[in-house]
Amino acid sequence: MKWFRAAAEKGVVEAQSLLGGIYSGGEGDEWGIKPDIQEAQKWYGQAAKQGDSDAQIALGKIYYSGATGRTDYAKALALFTQVENDGTNSRSTMPLSWMYYNGLGTAPDCDKAWSYYKKASRYVGKKVEEKIFLSKCVADIQSRKNNADALPKVTLKKESIFSRGLTAKPKECALIFQIGTDKIRNMANLHITLELKNADGMATEETLMIPPFGLNTLGIDMQNHDVDPLITPYDLPLYTQDFCHGIDDIHFTLKSATATINGKNVDLLKADSVRFLDKE
Fold first, then answer.
1. Is the pTM of this model over 0.90?
2. Which terminus in the chain has less CB density within 10 A, N or C?
3. Helix (H) / strand (E) containing 150
């Protein structure tokens, strides 16, 4: 690891991009490194400045997801557009379709969204035909406007616990949740803090920083994967065995829940707009 860091500090773009991937969590388990999104942003940023298209796309996705605390759609859109204009990486095309479809960092543009989706389908496959894509896009724009003033009904449902065994360090396990909402709307920066208490009375607080979801009814995500539009999975990594013995052995308490709804910061817990659900 120290050799990659030394190379990255000397400006070797491949090493900078690799460090970005390791610290983002994408490859951290393999290296025994705890994710550090600020470090990931730093190294991806340095590689992106040198024109590394993979780093530019990865950095754009960090800005889009709000992994550092707040989404920045304008920066994400600028990075995806830069890669697309350079013509060096086909993986920018689908994210651009997504940004224009949902009006993120720009006004929604259904025709432009379809143009990018049609182009991307050569690489990722076509899951939505033009007529359906365009009709849903227009309808979703109107639905987001209609739901602009209504608070969401957010649900947080515990699903399972996942452990990769003794060789997967530093992460000991991950708690798997399912996050849901009731209607499509412009919701970002959804942060939910939970208190976890185990059978021995040990307690800790963990914050779930949930990427944007519930933006449309298209049935695919930014990667063209099939999804339920109103539900997203979330894996919460834990770095101690104290809470890894079984998800049903943990008592969960909602401590806070906030989000940005149509540009306004909202306390969802105070507004009674969030519920914690046990498994069915």
1. yes
2. C
3. none
